[in-house]
Amino acid sequence: MIHTSNISYLLSKLSLILFLIMGCASISFAQDLKKVMDLSHRWKFSIGDKQEWANPEFNDSDWEWIDVPSAWENKGFHGYDGFAWYRTTFSARQLHDKHALYLQLGYIDDVHEVFVNGVRIGLSGKFPPRFSTAYNVFRSYKLPPDLLQETNTIAVRVYDDGGEGGIIHGNIGVMMDVDAVPLDVDLSGSWKFKTGQYAHESIDQMESWDDIIVPGNWEDQGYKNYDGYACYALEFKLKEEFVKDRMVLVLGKIDDIDQVFVNGVLVGQSGEFKPQTVHERSNSWQQLRGYYLPTNLLSASEKNTIVVRVYDGMHGGGIYSGSIGLISQDHYIKYWNKRRNK
Q1: pLDDT tens per residue, range 107-129
Q2: Are residue 48 and residue 11 in the same domain, yes or no?
Q3: I need a surface site. Which of 23, 96, 180, 307 has the fewest CB within 10 A?
Q4: Signal sequence span per UniProt (predicted)?
């Protein structure tokens, strides 16, 4: 992502800084994705739209075969616009490490959502009646390690509004982020989301908020061209072993600035939470968020709540990339020492 509307803003992004604010360590680096499984082959395919097709137990033996990637118009479905589904399976036995895995699906025209073993792990664009295309977005989705089984079913629901449709092109496969943070608790996946400037006290009705996949730009998930304030929220349970440890909350990269609350306590922010900070800390969108949590803040007996307030100045916005979850302080220090030695 490059910001071009403000020259000084662009130039300042070339200066990488390390800053510590309220226990937040932010360091800039890019994902290093290595392909560990090729999924460019023939998938099962059917036009139409039934939610049961996401179920791994569904019998798709009478479906057509289609090459992935390719436009379905070039594979016998010329002129078809509307809904269609793709399905395939893969074995986890071929994967030596189930952590830091991503399902890379390239470019899909126009809108899609992705299920693994019946659980939605990603979406781009918006389906009708609030249609918003995401045909030009390269898609890669985090594979939660707890979701993987010996045999895994991928189901991709696609809507095409016109022209070419389907999983069009790209390097399709399972990728591993070589430099990912080795989380103790993975919190990626479906979060609650609402646009607007919401304080952490204002989440009593968060069950009525929209669902959004974290990590992932909000523009790619139906909030096209939205700049400004938004709020993410997640409730989760935690095992006793992690309550006793001093933990770090890792939130990947956030565009542009953020303010984070855990169980109602402010645990960190990437500078003062106001629009002017976007220019003062203009490279914050490139930096990994790691917030050190106070002892006795997390609970094993009750649900824990994370609230992330975000302000985006322009272009891509939100919790858009990287590892999302909890890691013990000892493991976090070892991770960074290993990176520095590299």
Answers
A1: 999 999 999 999 999 898 889 99
A2: no
A3: 96
A4: none
Q: Do 186 and 334 fall within a single domain?
A: yes
| Torsion, CA 120, CA 124, CA 128, CA 133, rounded to 10 | -160
Number of independent structural domains in the chain: 2
Is residue 225 a contact partner of residue 134, using CB atoms and an 8 Å limit?
no
pTM for this structure?
0.75
Is the domain of 18 the same as that of 112? no
Grade residue 220 by pLDDT with cuts at 50, 70 and 90.
confident
Domain that holds residue 165: 34-177
Contact predicate 138/170, CB 8 Å: yes
Tell which residue, 147, 28, 23, has the closest CA to residue 92: 147
**Domain co-membership, 290 together with 308:** yes
**Per-residue tokens: 267:** 């645990």
Q: Which of 106, 93, 75 is nearest to 173 (CA)?
A: 106
Structure tokens at 17: 């800084």
Report the alpha-carbon distance of residue 319 to residue 250 in Å, rounded.
11
